[in-house]
């Protein structure tokens, strides 16, 4: 008998009469501001989601990502601006009339109800006919790979299975949009990776517009069509995972998304000089100049854009290996220059260095983000 995970991931298409909509509804925030007393936590946020798109709100604690989600849900009234779903202004519409599905960190399943009854609950509240309820529950449990557990109770399920029950319950009502607030944060790392992929597969299969809140950058990059990186109640950058990683438009985004080395350099027109290398500079999001030629700056350089080669020569590009670690297909090596500056390098695991080895350091000609250096 296949495992629940095999059942879910091996299904290429939804069953006939699929429970989900063929396409989701557009979701839009227009100048949404939210204040709690004298404290403003959202500052005029604008965000557009196309039908069927999955957008992650990513950022550190306190950046406003969960507040933005709660404003979309109607759990928090906005102080200014508008929320639109499917082109309709729902800013003043109560949460139970917004036609959305929600899954939170705490799944809040009814402990006295079976899996099937938990999934069916929302349909009963909407007075859907009994026969249709049974059909839709069966279809949704098949989609999430839990048909064989329909008569189990929540305490008889693993955390990952409970998460999928909560997801099925949110989707069975055929909502216009799905809102996920860190739904995987209570699970261990291996289960999280498996379930995030399953959520993405189900979301794609059903074509439902989804807002996914997380502070886990790997999670956001893995599942999103686009990612909105939030900082201080504003969207610092919105783009595809590739855009955010390869072309961060601010030091905050470069530092928060992925790993970056902070390397001292000097501006030279539209490029920066870094230890003998000339690297192109990514222009700031606001279009302002990153500085003037000759200004000292910090360049944010990805570990995989650093190249090492064995060398006994000295000079500004010469360094000594401090540590190296095997990470399966890659190694991460830390080197130190004569002036004490350190650099993390990511390279193929077939090349191994030992602590104390002298190496030459070079940089790939990839665009970098820079910040003024005091």
From TrEMBL:
<keyword id="KW-0813">Transport</keyword>
<dbReference type="GO" id="GO:0016887">
    <property type="term" value="F:ATP hydrolysis activity"/>
</dbReference>
<dbReference type="InterPro" id="IPR017871">
    <property type="entry name" value="ABC_transporter-like_CS"/>
</dbReference>
<dbReference type="InterPro" id="IPR050093">
    <property type="entry name" value="ABC_SmlMolc_Importer"/>
</dbReference>
<dbReference type="InterPro" id="IPR027417">
    <property type="entry name" value="P-loop_NTPase"/>
</dbReference>
<dbReference type="InterPro" id="IPR003439">
    <property type="entry name" value="ABC_transporter-like_ATP-bd"/>
</dbReference>
<dbReference type="GO" id="GO:0015418">
    <property type="term" value="F:ABC-type quaternary ammonium compound transporting activity"/>
</dbReference>
<protein>
    <recommendedName>
        <fullName>ABC-type quaternary amine transporter</fullName>
        <ecNumber>7.6.2.9</ecNumber>
    </recommendedName>
</protein>
<feature type="domain" description="ABC transporter">
    <location>
        <begin position="27"/>
        <end position="257"/>
    </location>
</feature>
<dbReference type="Pfam" id="PF00005">
    <property type="entry name" value="ABC_tran"/>
</dbReference>
<dbReference type="InterPro" id="IPR013611">
    <property type="entry name" value="Transp-assoc_OB_typ2"/>
</dbReference>
<keyword id="KW-0547">Nucleotide-binding</keyword>
<feature type="compositionally biased region" description="Low complexity">
    <location>
        <begin position="15"/>
        <end position="25"/>
    </location>
</feature>
<dbReference type="InterPro" id="IPR008995">
    <property type="entry name" value="Mo/tungstate-bd_C_term_dom"/>
</dbReference>
<dbReference type="GO" id="GO:0043190">
    <property type="term" value="C:ATP-binding cassette (ABC) transporter complex"/>
</dbReference>
<dbReference type="Pfam" id="PF08402">
    <property type="entry name" value="TOBE_2"/>
</dbReference>
<feature type="compositionally biased region" description="Polar residues">
    <location>
        <begin position="1"/>
        <end position="11"/>
    </location>
</feature>
<feature type="region of interest" description="Disordered">
    <location>
        <begin position="1"/>
        <end position="26"/>
    </location>
</feature>
<keyword id="KW-0067">ATP-binding</keyword>
<dbReference type="InterPro" id="IPR003593">
    <property type="entry name" value="AAA+_ATPase"/>
</dbReference>
<dbReference type="GO" id="GO:0005524">
    <property type="term" value="F:ATP binding"/>
</dbReference>
């Amino acid at each position: 008998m296949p495992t629940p995970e095999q059942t879910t991931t091996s299904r290429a298409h939804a069953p006939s009469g699929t429970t989900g909509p063929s396409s989701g509804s557009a979701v839009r925030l227009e100048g949404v501001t939210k204040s709690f007393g004298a404290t403003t936590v959202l500052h005029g946020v604008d965000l557009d989601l196309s039908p069927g798109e999955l957008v992650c709100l990513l950022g550190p604690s306190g950046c406003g990502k969960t507040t933005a989600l709660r404003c979309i849900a109607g759990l928090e009234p906005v102080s200014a601006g508008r929320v639109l779903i499917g082109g309709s202004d729902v800013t003043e519409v109560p949460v139970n009339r917004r036609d959305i599905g929600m899954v939170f960190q705490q799944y809040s399943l009814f402990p006295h109800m079976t899996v099937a009854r938990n999934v069916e609950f929302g349909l009963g509240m909407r007075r859907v006919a009994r026969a249709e309820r049974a059909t839709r529950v069966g279809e949704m449990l098949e989609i999430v790979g839990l048909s064989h557990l329909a008569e189990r109770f929540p305490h008889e399920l693993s955390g990952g299975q409970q998460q999928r029950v909560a997801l099925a319950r949110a989707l069975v009502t055929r909502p216009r949009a799905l809102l996920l607030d860190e739904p995987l944060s209570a699970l261990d790392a291996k289960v999280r990776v498996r379930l995030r992929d399953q959520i993405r597969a189900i979301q794609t299969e059903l074509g439902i517009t989804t807002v996914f809140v997380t502070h886990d950058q790997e999670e956001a990059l893995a599942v999103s069509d686009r990612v909105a990186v939030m900082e201080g109640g504003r969207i610092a950058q919105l783009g595809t995972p590739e855009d955010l990683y390869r072309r961060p438009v601010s030091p905050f985004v470069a530092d928060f998304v992925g790993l970056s080395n902070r390397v001292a350099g000097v501006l030279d027109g539209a490029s920066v000089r870094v230890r003998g290398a000339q690297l192109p500079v990514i222009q700031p999001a606001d279009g302002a100049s990153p500085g003037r030629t000759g200004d000292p700056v910090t360049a944010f350089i990805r570990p995989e854009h650093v190249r090492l080669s064995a060398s006994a020569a000295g000079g500004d590009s010469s360094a000594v290996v401090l540590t190296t670690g095997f990470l399966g297909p890659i190694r991460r090596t830390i080197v130190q220059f004569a002036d004490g500056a350190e650099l993390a390098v990511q390279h193929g695991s077939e090349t191994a260095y030992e602590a104390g080895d002298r190496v030459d350091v070079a940089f790939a000609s990839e665009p970098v983000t820079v910040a003024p250096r005091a």
